[in-house]
Amino acid sequence: MARQEKFDAVVVGAGFSGLYMLHLLRQQGLKVVLLETAPEVGGTWYWNRYPGLRCDIESMQYCYTFDKGLDEKWRWSERFPRQPEILEYLKFAADHLDLRRDIRFETRLSAATWIEDEGVWRLESENGDTIECRYCAMATGLLAEPVLPDIPGVGDFEGQSIHSARWPEGLNDFTGKRVGLVGTGSSGVQLVPELAKTAKSLHVLIRTPPFAQESHNRSLEEEEIASVRAEIDVLRERARHNATGVWFRRFSDAYPYRSVPLEERQAELSRCWGEGGNSVLNRFNDVLIDPDANAEIAQFMRDRIAEIVDDPETARLLSPHGVFAAKRLPIGTGYHAAFNRDNVHVVALKEEPIETIHAGGVRTTKADYPFDVLVYATGYDAGTGALSKIKISGRNGADINQRWADDGPGAFMGIIAADFPNFFILTGPGSPGVLSNVVVMIEMHCEWTAECIDWMERNNVRTIDARQEDQDAWMDDIHSMAEGTLVMKEDNWYTGSNIAGKKRGMMFYMAGLGTYRKAIYDEAAKGYSDFVLERGES
Ligand code: FAD
Ligand code: N01
User: Fold this and answer.
1) What is the atom index within ligand 2 of the atom nearest the CA of 208?
2) Which of 193, 209, 399, 525 is the most exposed place for a label (fewest CB within 10 A)?
3) Which atom of ligand 1 is nearest to the CA of 140?
4) pLDDT tens sequence across 261-312
5) 258 class by beta-carbon count within 10 Å (0-12 exposed, 13-18 middle, 19+ buried)
């Protein structure tokens, strides 16, 4: 029988965000429940299990920082951990914090409706249960809704079709199979070397060659862990206030690329390349501002590709053009080198566009490629995808998804959308979101939300909402920030341009995590006065 219940707060999603949000609100004495579609915690790290998936942030940084016990009891094995290790970490965190008793797995939220007279949200889950609550924290993820490409015939293929985000458990042996891979963003870059190991043939269908950087992954030895731990508090504090939420031990400050002579900056670039990961991107603070700096770094990357790839024609096809790091930089392990194998081939879609996918494979303007397996590493409906699957009705029947379809995605201060009171959107549009070490972003949003709710409870504030004009001004600022950078020179999923019909516009706050933190905490310090607050009856 369907349940009807009342809670103080409901959290939706059991990834990094939802787990921490549940912990914080519960600690504050609220009656909270968490709803999760999946049968397990993990979010991104539960759903994505393609071979080769690793984090692009170092393990000792891509983890919670709020609980010393978690740090002391967990030991990362590698610099850039694999997906199973991150999933295990989140399961461990859920157990360590005793969260499971308040999580309802296999429970998908299908609708949320604001009931004005009662000042509550009425939530309906797919199984028919309803919950009324004062506060909703939407931890539904910014890269949670996978998309297939809009290629003719995509449904006609009769072999095995797999999206990177819905990988069949344990599948990593493609012996005897002719595999086609569409997409070379972060997912594709990590998949290529793994598929290449066993496939009879691997054709990588590349529309935009990526500026992939090598991770230079390694196992973590006790000595390194101990020395990082010795200064971890300082490093973490640095990451909380800098632009990207990432710390480096070799340097703490980024500087303008061309502020030093050519020889010096090229030497530094080589050092960063050698370090791997996101070092190149984080060392200089104007990579996405100064076109000449960007062009010089892009050429440096192309030169490295030409060194790695044996065949000059293949190297040419793999060479990226355009802006370096306009999209999140893919961090791979042996991506370019995989093309030196005899069984790996480039299909350059700019030179031979796809005409159609058909029952037996893919036909381009130049050739027909027969495949047994087609892998789509074609990305996500970012920022709003998971929320778009929920019917969300706010004040006066406002429909959040209709508003976002009409006006473009947005939220005031990147957390509350106008006419959706007490509805906190974690890592959503208007926040730095994915332009960061997302776990640092997540901890900030969860803590701000918990503190806001605590303040409301203590100050008899019934609702917190935003004005549409303030939200528009916030998003206009974000669009202006983006226009001043090189990011907008290219099609980019940050702007929704990978989704047919989605209104284009920069979704994420580009002035940096630290600047954003200051803005939202200044707002808290002045009693949230730029929001619309409604006091309860005393
Ligand atoms: P998610 O982990 O996406 O969790 C959202 C949860 O909400 C999911 O479990 C989903 O099932 C649930 N949910 C959604 N809708 C509903 C509903 N209607 N009802 C109930 N439950 C629902 N970021 C980095 O900083 N570094 C990285 O290296 C990195 N690697 C990534 C690799 C991949 C393949 C992807 C896709 C993303 C990666 N990211 C990375 C971004 C990553 O999404 C975040 O770092 C982080 O894991 C997001 O956590 P979250 O809890 O906010 O959302
Ligand atoms: O997806 P993407 P992703 N025909 O959108 C191509 C995080 N992440 O899953 O560039 C042909 O980046 C598309 O081509 P183009 C991270 O934040 C992190 O790889 O549009 N090709 C592109 O190559 C990341 O940024 C990790 O020309 C088509 C690819 O598909 C985000 O998730 C790992 C096409 C899509 O790339 C998304 O990454 C994985 C078409 N019709 C993910 N349509 C880490 O390592 C699309 N493409 C941490």
Assistant:
1) 27
2) 525
3) 7
4) 999 999 999 999 999 988 888 899 999 999 999 999 999 999 999 999 999 9
5) middle
Write down the pTM of the prediction.
0.97
Whole-angstrom distance, CA of residue 392 vs CA of residue 390: 6
**Has residue 538 got a pLDDT over 70?**
no
Distance 6 CA to ligand 2 centre (A): 40
10 lines ligand 1 (CB under 6 A): no
Cβ 460 vs Cβ 119: under 8 Å = no
CA angle at residue 223 from 220 to 228, to 5 degrees?
A: 80
The preferred substitution site among 78, 327, 378 for testing ligand 2, maximizing ligand atoms within 8 Å of CB, is 378
Distance of CA 71 from the midpoint of ligand 2 (Å): 32
Collect contacts of 452-458 with beta carbons under 8 A, ≥24 apart.
452/424, 452/524, 452/528, 453/9, 453/25, 453/28, 453/30, 453/135, 454/28, 455/524, 455/527, 455/528, 457/28
Binding site membership of 442 for ligand 1 (Cβ less than 6 Å): yes
The ligand 2 atom at the shortest distance from the C-alpha of residue 184 is 23
Q: How far apart are CA 418 and CA 450, in angstroms?
A: 20
Q: What is the pLDDT of residues 101-132, one digit of tens each?
A: 999 999 999 999 999 999 999 999 999 999 99
Q: Is the separation of the CB atoms in 339 and 318 below 8 Å?
A: yes
Distance 302 CA to ligand 1 centre (A): 32
Q: Is the C-beta atom of 390 inside 6 A of ligand 1? A: yes
pLDDT of residue 349 exceeding 70: yes
C-beta of 41 in contact with ligand 1 (< 6 A): no
Ligand 2 centroid from CA 476, angstroms: 26
Cα 73 to chain centroid distance, Å, stands at 27
Q: What domains lie within the chain, and their CATH numbers?
A: 4-41+99-145+382-535 (3.50.50.60), 178-376 (no CATH)
